[in-house]
Amino acid sequence: MLLSGWIFLIQSKPKHKDKHGHDGPNGKRGKPVMREKTRMKYADIIADIFFAETPDDDDDDDDRRNSDWILDLQDLNGQCNPNPCLNNGVCKEKGRRNYKCDCPKPFRGRKCDKGPKACRKGRCGRGECVLTSSPPFYECKCKQPFQPPDCKRVSLCERNPCKNGGQCIRDGNDFDCQCPKGFRGRFCRVGPADCYVNDGETYRGLVSETEDGFECLHWNSHFILEKGTDPFSSFEDKDGLGPHNFCRNPDGEPRPWCFFRRGRRLFWDYCNVTACPEPTNVVPTNFVTSNPPPTSATPSSTALPTATQVPTPTAKPSVAEAQQFLTCGSPQQRKAFTRIFGGLKVSPGGIPWQVSVQEKPKNSLKPYKHICGGVLISSCWVLTAAHCIDKNKDLQVIAGSLSLDKVEPSAQTIKVENAIAHENYRETPQAVFNDIALLRLKGNEGFCANETQLVKTACLPDVQFPDGMECTISGWGATESSDYGSNHMLEADVLLINQEKCSEPSIYGSVLDNSMFCAGYLQGGVDSCQGDSGGPLTCKPNSTSIVYGLVSWGDKCGAKNKPGVYTRVTEFLGWIKSKMQASP
Ligand code: ARG
Q1: pLDDT digit string (tens) for 438-472?
Q2: For residue 554, what are the contacts with CB-CB under 8 A and spacing of at least 6?
Q3: Which of 74, 492, 502, 584 has its CA 20 to 30 A from that of 214?
Q4: How far is the CA of 397 from the centre of ligand 1 (A)?
Q5: Ligand 1: which of 1, 7, 529, 537 to mutate, judged by most atoms within 8 Å of the beta carbon?
């Protein structure tokens, strides 16, 4: 997937580079490389485009460039639907083709995407601007070795930045903290008892780095607000949040996490935090003083489901099993939203109908490999793309897993009994037609996949959705930073593009037929990509997710005027029904 240049499906987890711009030793699959390599050094800070000085007054131009291409390039109907205003802005239609956002304080900008002026560009030199509640309403958090108040002056080890008795050692333009035994982190802030229990909801420790060594943004960072997310109003459990950059888990993730930034892009990832040793009723020490430690370690209500066993083919389905998959299109309820911005790593249960379709040479002992995505539409049926099917291969699907490189306890691996490609599936150098297939899973009496918090079905559509509607794509496909795909399932939002518009000569011309439609952004950026095929494009007209498209093809990924092309599921409802009825 590429979002903003990745989704190729969604904002991908970045591939890590070392100081010299080469991939890290494990770079291909995005495995963490050594922390030393990713932490910001003086040279990286200087090279960071985020700190490039630009005149203040181009702020709003930027804004126009970033958001108005939708209006310019697509034929949208109602401008306020979907609501283009961020940060709870209220949308008012202005004529037939325009809208205005009424922004709640302190937001502004055409889409309420600009935070308070207090943090204008360049204000904090080589540092992050965070918002405060008293004048002057901002504070600069400098990147060491740049110094307060405006992060423009450098000082190495003059005032020892290392905590807990750490020793500051100069190294050219840089410094390192040598920590006393038991302490860690860039500034030796993290003590030996700094750990989290259960899902880390109660974690109040001092780790402020992601698993891959990126420095966390402050929760009150202007940059996060600017991207349309206010952590203080978006999460249900804000107790642990504050004007700091320590990892927290305010939204039911499996463990503490934080936002981080690369260039002008916002990401999030899990943190480099240690789980407390069992038994878990030890109160971790080394807390931030303003956040009193929890008094007990209560089990989290959001813990992941434990291993689910796929029934053996001989087992008769029980009454409980027969009650499964009664509703489609409802993902696992999250504590709060987890859709944070553009496209991101999917959180557990976020897209429970997405499966990985995997193949190996027929009857061989070779391992199965991910080739495509697929969509669970009932316990025993998966929709995918016809071009994913090779009759000389054995197929299996994995449901309930976010990660492809480790076997998660929630994963259900189910063999494919029969792969049915559409009879009129056809591929030419220009396009792929009728690109749809059904996989009949191996199971017993209509029971194959087991419904869990992480495995659910998507609904089939019964109506067409309007151009301009925002829908979701997901998968493990290639990202802008990795041709090999992402290890973690990614998701992104794309817009349905008017068919006539997409058939213009500068886009796909006359090759499109009714078996397909375009979705994405004509300006490029967010798109699906190699490895995402067969996966879902779901739209949510109300609270239910409906599989409206399947990732099919596109000219490159994320390129301007070359949006993703998706199989139009509404064209195949009769076909789907007839195949499913023929082998119930
Ligand atoms: N054919 C690709 C696959 O097999 C999907 C390509 C989608 N391309 C795009 N630009 N959206 O995974």
Answers
A1: 999 999 888 999 999 899 999 999 999 999 998 99
A2: 520, 527, 528, 529, 562, 563, 564, 565
A3: 492
A4: 19
A5: 529
